[in-house]
Specification:
Order of helices and strands: EHEHEE
Number of strands: 4
Strand order of the largest sheet: 1-2-4-3
Largest sheet: 4 strands, mixed
Strand content: 25-35%
Number of helices: 2
Distance between the termini: 10 Å
Shape: globular
Structural class: alpha+beta
Amino acid sequence: TLHIHLLMVSEKYQGKGIGSKILKSINVSKSRKINVKTYTHLRRTINFYLKNNFKIEDANNKTILLSKKI
C-alpha cells in the first residue's frame, strides 16, 4: 500500500490535469492500493480524489481517509 501524505499542485496550475497525471504515474508502481488522508474541510481536495476514482474508507469530524485499488 502506498500512503500519500501530501500532494499539492500550485494554485496557478490547478485544474490543468497535473494532479491527475501524477496519480496516473503512481498507478504504474508496484503498489496495489493508494491511501490518502486529508481534512474534511478541504472539499476541493476531496472532490479531486473522488474524481480520480478514490473511495471514502473512513471519516470523522476532522479527517477523511480515501483509497483506491490499483
